[in-house]
Amino acid sequence: MSITCPNCGSHRIHPRHRGRQVGGSIGCAAGTASGAAGALSGAEAGALAGAWAGPVGITVGSLTGAVFGGLIGGTAGGVAGARLGKQLDTQVLDNYACHGCGRTFRPHAV
Description:
This protein has one domain (13-105). The protein has helices at residues 18-37, 39-50, 55-91; strands at residues 13-15, 96-98, 104-105. By secondary structure, the chain is mainly alpha-helical. The protein is rod-shaped and about 70 Å long. Strand 2 and strand 3 (104-105) form a beta hairpin.
């Protein structure tokens, strides 16, 4: 399906993806904060896993567990936020912009 501008009829259209970008950023920040809160449990798990190597293993295991807790939380939040943003792009926002006249619009369902 070819999308054309409802104002000028141009085929030079590009998607803006504003909702997906903003949703992904907010979700990533929220997920990282949640992951940082969960990093304590990751640090504890890492410390237990590294305990066999003594004090150095506990330290390295704790740090590794905390970092992975933050990364996993950030990734999960970013994906969830991007999916929500994609729905906003599709159903609410004017997701397309015309290079010809500069108008933003949401294509009508056929």
